[in-house]
Each structure stands twice: as structure tokens, then as C-alpha cells.
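Example record used in the benchmark description.
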Amino acid sequence: MSEAIANPEDKAQPIPDFKRPGDGENVISGEIPNPFDIPLADLNPVSARLFSEDKQWDYFKRLRAEDPVHFNQTELAGRYWSLTGYDEIKQVDSDHHNFSSAHGITLGFPIDAELPEGALNVSMFIAMDPPTHDVQRKTVSPVVAPSNLANLEGLIRQRTQSVLDSVPLNQPFDWVELVSIELTTQMLATLFDFPFEDRRKLTRWSDVATAVPGAGIVDSEEQRRAELIECLQYFTQLWEERKVNPGSDLVSMLAHGEETHDMQPLEFLGNLILLIVGGNDTTRNSMTGGVYALNQFSSEFAKLKSNPALIPNMVAEIIRWQTPLAYMRRTANHDIELGGKAIKAGDQLLMWYVSGNRDETAFERPNDLVIDRPNARGHLSFGFGIHRCMGNRLAEMQLRILWEEILERFDDIQVLAEPERTYSSFVKGYTKMMVTVTPK
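Model output (C-alpha cells):
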């Protein structure tokens, strides 16, 4: 693998910028319109700005009520459907026979389109169908096996205690930077056995992989490509080291797995991006989202302090309420009917988890955080079927320990202003949230 990317020209070739479907295409300028004033056919929730300003909710409310299988067509992406109802999302997510993952997990080019020059055509096992998906996922799944999680719990608690003990008391600080990012990046470094002093590179690569060019993280697609090639080169060195001296980390598992040891460089990169983003964005944004939600619903925080035994159920409710990844994509394998609509072979379907988790028919008072909600674990955030999030138990454990340790040392966490949100309609997260903490 190292020989395949050793040629410096691989990184030095000029790569032209190109437009991509998704957030960069449906740009809303001026004042965001009221979705109830827009013709139904023109509603399109694929807009980074909607999410960055937290104004997507009425768009989804109208679509759930009037058109839960909603059609859009654009020049770059072609035909795609927004699934906004709980039942339709779960139906598609559970049916890999009719709805494929092999053409990508975010809104992309039509499956028969030629990719623009300079596109990094990476592959990852979440964007594969059986049997390849199954064997590659099986290769890395031991890292989140129950026995390994039990071994990690003490380390996670020790690090959580250290991070929380280091934050300033009774004075403003950024919870995202000092707590959420630091805890998740430390965990990622452990899972990869990544050099600890370089761990913030993992955060950077996660942000770069999902960023909208020109919106603050990367200036262009060329910059994204260069930084992801840097990621590949760094991990290729680790790959070569682990081939000789394997451990119990994710890189060693991939380097020695029967179905993965001969991966091509871009397939290796794709799986790295999957594991980095999956282990970083989802947990870190739930760590921030939980604090924000309990500020919005202060009576629930009082309920939690009077009954800490609610923490495990509250963790599931936070993940429902936050929904760290707003959607996942599938592609129709053949013509099929869904929700009374004629889906054509090759059509993209966006399963809007963020909408399904607020579906009034599935969750009572869906916009509220209810930490003792009886069906909180029925949320869509981890997906269903063969692609259900591999690290869901690890994420839940990290969040559980975080809140156990918060209750041990803090009487209150006060959010000082509206948080700054990620400019993306895929990653639903936070880039900054100023808080003060009051010790017990």
C-alpha cells in the first residue's frame, strides 16, 4: 500500500475545484423563507444554512405532514427523495435488498454520471452491500466487542475525570473545545493506537472530510483532497508498522484481516474516514447537545439530579434529540413503490433521521427532551439493519460516564449564548458553545 502513494506527484498534481451535490448546491441567500410559504414541490431540506441556523424544523414538519416521500431533482444530483417519516425511514434502512448503500451515503452524483476530475473516489464498508460489507465490518468489530468495552471503561472514566477537573470554574469557556473534542479525540487515538501527541490531527481530518468547501474549514476541494491524502500517508506508515508489530487496534485489525489486508489506498482511506467521523462527530456532538438540551429543558436537569439512575435512558434520549448525523442515503436497486410514490431504479433516497426522530406519530412531544421517555431507545440515530452503527455501545458508554462524572462535581452548567453550529446538512453538530460551570 505504501508504494501506491509514495510518488510525490500523487499529491502534487493540480486538482481543479468542482461543484458537488449537496450542501454547496442548494444555497439559500437572503432571509430564510418560511417553508409554509413555498410551493410544496420546491421544498428542499438539503441546505447547510438551514442547519447552521437551526431553522430546518418547520421544513421537516411540513414534509412529514404533507409529503413524507418528497421528490427533488437538481442538475448535479439528479433525482432524489427525502424520507421524513419514521416508518418510511425504518422501512428503507432495514431493506438492503431493495435499497443499496454501494453508491454512497450522502447526496451525490447520479450513479451513471462520470465523476469530475480530481474527485477522491473513496470506498468504505458502510457504503457497501453484502457480502463485502459484512466481512469488512466483521474485521474491525472486535474493537467494540463487549469484552473490549469492559476493558476500556476504566480508561474512559479516568480521562473524563481528568478533562472535567481541568475546566475553569465559574468563568466562561468553550465546552466544544475543552470537553467534547478532547474526550472524543482521546478515545479515537486509543482505538487507532494513534500517537497521542498528534491526536488533534484526527479531529482535523474528521472536520475536513465532511466540510463544505468555502464555508470555513477548507477553502476548496483541492485543499480537502490534499489534507485527506496527508491522512492516508500518515496512516499508511502506521499500517506498515502494524504489519510487523500488530496490536489490538483498528489499524492492526485492517492490516491483518483476511478480507482487508490487500485493500487499495483509497479503500483504506475511505474506511479510515468512516471510522474517524463515526467515532468523532457523533459522540462529540451528543456531548455538546446534551448540555445544550438540558439548558433548554431545565426541569429535566432537576429531574436528573434527583434521580441519577435515569442517566442510561437519558443518554438514548439525548442521541434521539440531537441526531448527530442528519441523514443517510440509499439508492434504489430497481423500480419500486414507497409511500405511494414511484421510485425509479438509481434514484437516491435520503433517510432524514433528524426528521424521523421528531415524528409526532412515533414520539410524544418529540421536540422536547424527556429524559425518562419510555421509547427513547427507538430512535433512528444509529440506523437499522446491517448498517446499524457499529460503535453505538461505545458512544453510549462514553456519554453515560460523562454524565456520571458531571453530576459528581458540578451543580450546574449554564449555556451563555446560542451555540455556533456546523455548516452542514449531513453532520448536525456544534463548533462552539460557551458555558460556565458551577461546582458542588
